[in-house]
């Protein structure tokens, strides 16, 4: 649907505006978040903290581990991740991938603006 397409494009631009600091970018929000590596990189850039190194490898289990590391970091930041598991992101679930990025925007963008 059109709204989802606009959100995807907008969130992708937002992610890339931060990843540019570490000379990285994503081409497709749903595809490029799946292995968890860009997600970990994005959270490092936004938080200024060192996150666990991503697990090397392209197998599903490696992707799940990496996304899980990112979600665990968000939980430690007291970010509420209701009904979202690493498998949702690895499977490229559009609604939950958009929801995750929106949650990250709220936590790291909006919080900094209101403080």
UniProtKB/TrEMBL annotation:
The record's listing under Pfam families reads: CH
Domain named Calponin-homology (CH) is located at 5-109
Origin: domain of life = Eukaryota
> Cross-referenced InterPro entries, in alphabetical order?
Actinin_actin-bd_CS, CH_dom, CH_dom_sf
GO molecular function (one): actin binding
Give the Gene3D superfamilies listed for this entry: Calponin-like domain (1.10.418.10)
Going by the UniProt record, its keywords in alphabetical order are: Actin-binding, Repeat
The name of this protein is Calponin-homology (CH) domain-containing protein
Upper lineage ranks? Eukaryota, Metazoa, Ecdysozoa, Arthropoda, Hexapoda
